[in-house]
């Protein structure tokens, strides 16, 4: 039994190392000069804390600008997805009307449509609305999420109807039922949905690449792509690593803060991510 | 406080009729129990009174107001749900205060009233706890508190005791009843447990298949059930039924095949228009165990003995069917023993076999 446990830990350690080593390598490399990065035999730790890569990233590229763009887009998308999913989920789970289940099937069917099928029509739509090169070009197509609606509906089904009835008898209007009873109970589901949406939006590359053509509108992945192209030149290796390192910070923070609650939330919703 | 009147209430869900043409009245301060098996329409009726469902037909009056078109919040009723429906994200205090907060009462008054109710229900130490930290009985008190604190015109209680263990249920039964007596609030109480209904109610409305079967005090329902459904539902163990034919010769008697039962002559007039095929109803407590063979006794075989200490339920077989009798005290009988029984003819019931209506 003890030996088995040891084996499990050893295997887990190897897997953890396999995941963490490239990350650590990236972070450490961002503090190295180009010569250090290219030197053989490989040196793991930087000789000194060389910060010029970061200075270069911020001064020579619109990196801060891209960071703000990404934060605004990911945050707004997250808030809107939570908003639309919660309302739709509530309606689909708790209100009775003709055609409700057909409507829900349609929402699920939306999930089956591959992204690439929608690229051209969406692009034309956004272009005709004159929204190219604005935040809304990225936000609007993803502010309603079939997955989010599904998740919130499933979650709402776990809220007993009696709870809503109790609120009604206690004197709530329908809106008060929603705000005072349903929403406060949604927190675990919101955390799961919020984290997944924020990370997906933060990482999104293809769609922003299509609709954000001006450099000042670039998001972090787009800017990193630019750096990646520039990194054909070895002088930019360190800068690229610095950009990547900064790019992972928000998702790391969210992950660290929400990890526990995500696990709770997944148990709550019975869903796997 | 107010009376509640329900007239010709009908509610359908799709094609199923949940409640049909239900009419009854609850007097001011009265404790009325809606009793029936599950799916008989009693909870639907309660939700119709609360305004959580809309009736297809009929009228609901609370006080002197027709409330059909009022939303629940304007009906001034409070409801306790079977699973208590406490708000899980609020403490016991916040749960009780919630209806007052929604009505935007001043903070000091809310606090005063919540503490008063907590004292009444002896839950003062629980006010800071969340529902998940409370036991079933404690949750139940908080749910009651949330209903009482409003000082509503009407209490609606939907099987509030069914999730408690047997001991606590008996205790809470008495507590609830004395609470209702003290507060004198018009109360409509739903249950499927006839013991609960009999012990708590001023009057009982018996439901079956969406229709009212009988309305009356517990003793009226026990002594004068209007049909076989009420007769079998009220009383524990339930009434025994025998298929019999009525024979009118020089004497009046019932022929059950395995036994004959002589009826007193005074029943002759009452049964003049009765059909010949009847159902005989005898309550277990009205069957006497005779010490030995007797000419007019009913011969039976012991099937199972259920000792309860103060009394014994004897299950016996007549022909192929099993019936029950209640014997005060303990009996020295074993399954398979032959026994001789006497039915108390003054306390028997006769029902029309077709309609189930009570004839005697």
Features:
heterodimer; A: 273 residues; mainly alpha; 0% strand; disordered C terminus; B: 360 residues; alpha+beta; 9 helices; elongated
Give a short overview.
Helices cover 75% and strands 0% of the residues of chain A. By secondary structure, chain A is mostly helical.
Helices and strands in order, then pairings?
The complex is a heterodimer of chains A (273) and B (360).
Chain A: H1 2-29, H2 34-38, H3 52-60, H4 63-94, H5 100-112, H6 115-128, H7 135-139, H8 146-157, H9 161-169, H10 174-185, H11 187-203, H12 206-211, H13 220-230, H14 237-269
Chain B: E1 4-13, E2 16-26, E3 31-35, H1 42-50, E4 57-62, E5 65-66, E6 77-80, H2 92-102, H3 107-121, H4 136-148, E7 154-158, H5 166-183, E8 186-191, H6 194-200, E9 203-208, E10 211-216, H7 218-223, H8 228-233, E11 240-248, E12 252-255, E13 260-262, H9 267-270, E14 277-282, E15 287-290, E16 298-307, E17 311-318, E18 321-328, E19 338-343, E20 349-352
Parallel strand pairs in B: 3-8, 3-9, 6-7, 7-8
Antiparallel strand pairs in B: 1-2, 1-4, 4-5, 9-10, 11-12, 11-14, 12-13, 14-20, 15-19, 16-17, 16-19, 17-18
Helix pairs in contact in B: 2-3, 2-4, 3-4
Biggest interface found: A-B, 17 and 24 residues
The radius of gyration computed from the alpha-carbon positions of chain B, rounded to a whole number of angstroms, is 25 Å
If you compute it from the alpha carbons, what radius of gyration of chain A comes out, rounded to the nearest whole angstrom? Answer: 23 Å
- The percentage helix of chain A is over 70%
Strand content of chain B: 25-35%
Strand-residue fraction of chain A? under 5%
The H-and-E topology of chain B, N to C, reads as: EEEHEEEHHHEHEHEEHHEEEHEEEEEEE
- Biggest beta-sheet profile of chain A: none
Number of strands of chain B: 20
Oligomer: heterodimer
Helical amount of chain B = 10-25%
Tell me the span between the first and last alpha carbons of chain A.
32 Å
Provide the succession of SSEs of chain A.
HHHHHHHHHHHHHH
Q: Determine the structural class of chain A based on helices, strands and strand pairing.
A: mainly alpha
- SS field, number of helical segments of chain A: 14
Count helical runs of chain B: 9
Structural class of chain B, by secondary structure, is: alpha+beta
Can you tell me the residue ranges of chain A where pLDDT is under 50 for at least 5 consecutive residues? 269-273
* Number of beta strands of chain A: 0
């Amino acid at each position: 039994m003890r030996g088995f446990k040891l084996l499990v830990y050893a295997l887990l350690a190897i897997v953890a190392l396999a995941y963490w080593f490239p990350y650590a390598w990236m972070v450490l490399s961002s503090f190295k000069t180009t010569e250090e990065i290219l030197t053989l035999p490989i040196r793991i730790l930087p000789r000194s804390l060389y910060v010029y890569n970061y200075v270069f990233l911020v001064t020579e590229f619109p990196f801060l600008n891209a960071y703000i763009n990404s934060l605004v887009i990911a945050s707004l998308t997250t808030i809107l997805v939570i908003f639309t999913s919660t309302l739709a989920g509530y309606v689909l789970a708790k209100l009775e009307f003709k055609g409700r289940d057909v409507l829900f099937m349609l929402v699920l069917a939306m999930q089956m449509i591959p992204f690439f099928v929608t690229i051209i029509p969406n692009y034309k739509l956004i272009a005709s609305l004159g929204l190219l090169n604005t935040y809304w070009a990225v936000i609007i197509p993803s502010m309603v999420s079939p997955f989010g609606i599904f998740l919130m509906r499933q979650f709402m089904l776990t809220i007993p109807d009696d709870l809503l009835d109790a609120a009604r008898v206690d004197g709530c209007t329908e809106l008060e039922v929603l705000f005072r009873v349903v929403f406060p109970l949604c927190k675990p589901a919101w955390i799961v949905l919020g984290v997944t949406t924020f990370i997906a939006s933060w990482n999104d590359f293809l769609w922003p690449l299509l609709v954000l053509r001006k450099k000042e509108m670039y998001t972090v992945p787009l800017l990193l792509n630019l750096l990646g192209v520039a990194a054909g030149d070895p002088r930019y290796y360190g800068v690229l690593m610095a950009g990547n390192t900064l790019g992972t910070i928000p998702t790391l923070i969210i992950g660290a803060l929400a990890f526990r609650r995500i696990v709770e939330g997944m148990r709550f919703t019975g869903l796997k991510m | 406080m107010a009376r509640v009147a329900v007239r010709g209430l009908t509610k359908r869900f799709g094609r199923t009729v949940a409640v049909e043409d239900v009419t009854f009245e609850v007097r001011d301060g009265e404790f009325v129990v809606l009793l029936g098996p599950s799916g008989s329409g009693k909870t639907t009726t309660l939700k119709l009174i609360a305004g959580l469902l809309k009736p297809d037909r009929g009228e609901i009056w609370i006080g002197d107001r027709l409330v059909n078109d009022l939303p629940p919040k304007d009906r001034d009723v409070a409801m306790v749900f079977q699973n208590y429906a406490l708000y899980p994200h609020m403490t016991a205090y916040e749960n009780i205060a919630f209806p007052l907060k929604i009505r935007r009462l001043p903070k000091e008054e809310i606090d005063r009233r919540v503490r008063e109710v907590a004292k009444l229900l002896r839950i003062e130490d629980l006010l800071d706890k969340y529902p998940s930290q409370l036991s079933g009985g404690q949750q139940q008190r908080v749910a009651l508190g949330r209903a009482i604190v409003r000082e509503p015109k009407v209490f609606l209680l939907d099987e509030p005791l069914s999730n408690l263990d047997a001991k606590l249920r008996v205790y809470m039964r008495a507590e609830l009843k004395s609470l209702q007596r003290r507060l004198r609030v018009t109360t409509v109480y739903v249950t499927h447990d006839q013991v609960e209904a009999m012990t708590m109610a001023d009057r009982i409305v018996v439901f079956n298949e969406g229709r009212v079967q009988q309305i009356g005090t517990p003793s009226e329902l026990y002594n004068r059930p209007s049909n076989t459904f009420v007769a079998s539902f009220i009383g524990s163990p339930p009434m025994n039924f025998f298929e019999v034919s009525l024979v009118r010769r020089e004497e009046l008697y019932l022929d059950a095949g395995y036994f004959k039962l002589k009826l007193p002559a005074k029943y002759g007039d009452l049964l003049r228009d009765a059909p010949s095929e009847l159902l005989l109803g005898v309550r277990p407590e009205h069957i006497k165990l005779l010490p030995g063979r007797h000419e007019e006794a009913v011969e039976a075989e012991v099937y199972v003995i259920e000792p309860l200490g103060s009394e014994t339920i004897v299950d016996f077989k007549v022909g192929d069917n099993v019936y029950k009798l209640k014997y005060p005290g303990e009996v020295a009988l074993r399954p398979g023993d032959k026994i001789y029984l006497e039915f108390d003819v003054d306390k028997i019931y006769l029902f029309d076999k077709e309609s189930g209506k009570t004839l005697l």
